[in-house]
UniProtKB/TrEMBL annotation:
<feature type="compositionally biased region" description="Low complexity">
    <location>
        <begin position="469"/>
        <end position="485"/>
    </location>
</feature>
<dbReference type="GO" id="GO:0006897">
    <property type="term" value="P:endocytosis"/>
</dbReference>
<keyword id="KW-0472">Membrane</keyword>
<comment type="similarity">
    <text>Belongs to the FNBP1 family.</text>
</comment>
<keyword id="KW-0963">Cytoplasm</keyword>
<feature type="region of interest" description="Disordered">
    <location>
        <begin position="439"/>
        <end position="529"/>
    </location>
</feature>
<dbReference type="InterPro" id="IPR001452">
    <property type="entry name" value="SH3_domain"/>
</dbReference>
<dbReference type="Pfam" id="PF25610">
    <property type="entry name" value="HR1_TOCA"/>
</dbReference>
<feature type="coiled-coil region">
    <location>
        <begin position="127"/>
        <end position="154"/>
    </location>
</feature>
<feature type="domain" description="F-BAR">
    <location>
        <begin position="1"/>
        <end position="260"/>
    </location>
</feature>
<dbReference type="Pfam" id="PF00611">
    <property type="entry name" value="FCH"/>
</dbReference>
<dbReference type="InterPro" id="IPR001060">
    <property type="entry name" value="FCH_dom"/>
</dbReference>
<keyword id="KW-0254">Endocytosis</keyword>
<feature type="domain" description="SH3">
    <location>
        <begin position="531"/>
        <end position="595"/>
    </location>
</feature>
<keyword id="KW-0175">Coiled coil</keyword>
<dbReference type="InterPro" id="IPR011072">
    <property type="entry name" value="HR1_rho-bd"/>
</dbReference>
<dbReference type="InterPro" id="IPR027267">
    <property type="entry name" value="AH/BAR_dom_sf"/>
</dbReference>
Length: 596
């Protein structure tokens, strides 16, 4: 008897494949979650790699493109965060549910299969019992028929005795009884088997199949729910992602090319005046300056013995020597590499820095004043009621606060004077008279350099060379470089360089010990006294510590020989016990009054 019509094994195989597919979907969710996490990490690493470096200058003058890019990076960071949220929700809400359901499905399937196998085994056992009962009945029936046949033969045989016939009759009755017993057993087992088989196929096995069906439907339904849930995870973060994209669009809309251009203008606006027109030099006409130089050379001996005005006293300090001043006074530099008075910046940038410094000091003064007032009140309270505290404990703090306040006020006053001076210089530079003075100063400087170059190079045909002032519209750094290059033509023997800071010129005052006419008959230099461009008054004392500078005391009056060319230094002349001296002093330390 075959029992393969119930397709139990096929159902078991189908449910196993279904659970395996469901677990494969769980592996897909796990791998996708890992990809989301990796994507978020790569986005964060990307933002970190492309994050602009912070600097004080960028914070003060941030371009709209830079601000927009920073905002885009913030939005990308938020996007990375949302991808992490997606990965986390996929793991907690989808993957864990899949693993739990898969575990339950496997347990239910195993339980159902075990129950089905038990039912099938019971049915097979009962059928085996029925088969044995049937075989016993068949055997007993054949033996009963054989015993009946032997009795009939013995009863018909007249040669046998009645004892033999009776023996065959008893054997026949026994066999018939055994056959009836086997028949009854067979009938009984058949009834039991039919009942069990009916119960197996109509009740027990369908229940197992129903459980397997519910199990498979639960798996299918779980697949449906978890696919929807994985989509809902994306839906939940989509509004935030949309806002991130809107933020990127808003960042793009915030870019303003005009504002960026204004930032560049404000950042690099120097405030220098453009140079004046280059005069036409007619070589066919005699140069009065050359005649004056020749006349001065012929009468230099008498002038030198009479006064010191005809020459520089010891050395003619040229601007190339100012490089030594820059490197010598390291204490005048602030933490950001600029001078404390910002004299190395162009005028406009210097005014901005001074204004910011004044505002910063005003805030510090206000804060320190508030702290001092608070300490004063506390001291008064302690003096009124000594139980609250000892006023002597506050007195030391109060003295320190007052000292700090005094220092801040002195520094504020200094920077306010520097700012006022910078503003006044700007006003003077923009006036027509100042423009004329600057042009005259440029011409005098060209004449000075031209004569020096003529002494050093006799084949230049009297051509004018660029002076150390350069263009007023250049930046301070360009002016310094140009001055260094021009300074190389000033020195007679090439003994100075911009790096050394020793840009001096040999003088020919009698008895100066710097050389004689016999040694250098062609290189003795005699200079006409430069006409002063104005006067100046020293606001602060200055100790000359570098080559090319001269000392001055507070309130001292000096003559302005050459105005500040953007490097923060002004060439002045002073009269001392040694005679006339020329050199450079910080522009921020003096108050200039230029002639009209």
């Amino acid at each position: 008897m075959r029992l393969d019509v119930d397709q139990f094994d096929n159902l078991a195989t189908h449910t196993q494949k279904g659970i395996d597919f469901f677990e494969r979907f769980g592996n897909f969710i796990r791998d996708r979650s890992a990809i989301e996490v990796e994507y978020a990490l790569k986005l964060r690493r990307l933002v970190k790699n492309y994050q602009p470096k912070k600097s004080k200058e960028d914070e003060e003058n941030e371009f709209s493109t830079l601000i927009a890019f920073k905002n885009v990076l913030k939005e990308v960071t938020d996007l990375a965060g949302q991808r992490e949220v997606v990965a986390e929700n996929l793991q907690t809400q989808v993957l864990q549910g899949i693993l739990l359901l898969s575990k339950n499905l496997r347990e239910e399937r195993k339980k159902s299969l075990n129950q089905g196998a038990l039912l099938t085994q019971s049915l097979h056992t009962q059928i085996g019992t029925l088969e044995r009962a049937k075989r016993s009945y068949e055997k007993a029936f054949r033996e009963a028929e054989k015993a009946l046949e032997g009795y009939q033969k013995a009863d018909a045989d007249f040669h046998l005795s009645r004892a033999d016939v009776e023996k065959q009759r008893v054997n026949m009755n026994i066999r018939n009884s055994q056959s009836e017993d086997a028949k009854s057993e067979y009938a009984n087992q058949l009834q039991i088997t039919n009942k069990l088989q009916q119960q197996h196929y109509q009740t027990a096995l369908p229940e197992v199949f129903n459980r397997l069906q519910e199990l498979d439907e639960k798996r299918t339904r779980g697949m449906k729910e978890f696919i929807k849930r994985s989509a809902d995870v994306e839906y939940e973060v989509s509004p935030i992602i949309a806002r991130c994209l809107e933020g990127m669009v808003k960042a793009a809309d915030s870019i303003n090319e005009k504002d960026d251009s204004m930032i560049v203008i404000e950042k690099y606006q120097s405030g220098f005046q453009p140079p004046g027109d280059i005069p036409f030099e007619d070589l066919s006409k005699p140069d009065p300056d050359a005649a004056n130089n020749s006349q001065t050379h012929n009468s230099s001996t008498g002038l030198n013995h009479m006064t010191g005005k005809g020459t520089t006293k010891d050395k003619l300090k040229k601007r190339v020597g100012i490089f030594g001043i820059f490197t010598g006074n390291k204490n005048n530099l602030s933490t950001d590499g600029l001078k404390e008075d910002f004299s190395d910046l162009p005028p406009t940038q210097r005014r901005k820095k001074l204004t910011a410094k004044v505002q910063e000091l005003q805030q510090k003064v206000a804060q320190e004043q508030a702290a001092s007032d608070g300490l004063m009140k506390m001291k008064g309270v302690y003096e009124a009621n000594s139980t609250l505290g000892d006023p002597r404990t506050v007195e030391e703090q109060l003295n320190e606060s007052i000292n700090r306040l005094d220092r801040l006020r002195i520094e504020l006053q200094r920077y306010q004077k520097l700012l006022d001076q910078a503003n006044s210089q700007t006003c003077n530079q923009h006036s027509p008279q100042a423009n004329r003075v600057i042009q005259n100063g440029q011409r005098a400087s060209r004449h000075s350099n031209g004569s020096s170059n003529h002494e050093n190079n006799h084949d230049d045909n009297g051509e004018d060379h660029p002076d150390d002032a350069g263009s007023l519209s250049r930046s301070a750094s360009e002016s310094s470089v140009q001055q260094a290059q021009n300074g190389l033509n000033i020195n007679n023997n090439g003994s100075a360089s911009p790096e050394s800071g020793l840009g001096t010129s040999h003088t020919s005052l009698p008895g100066s010990g710097q050389g004689s006419t016999n040694e250098q008959p062609l290189n003795d230099e005699y200079y006409d006294a430069d006409q002063p461009l104005g006067t100046c008054r020293a606001l602060y004392p200055f100790d000359a510590t570098s080559e090319g500078s001269i000392p001055m005391s507070e309130g001292e009056e000096l003559q302005v020989i050459e105005v500040d060319q953007g490097d923060g230094w002004t060439r002045v002349r002073r009269f001392s016990s040694k005679g006339w001296e020329e050199g450079f002093v910080p522009t921020s330390y003096i108050e200039c009054t230029l002639y009209a």
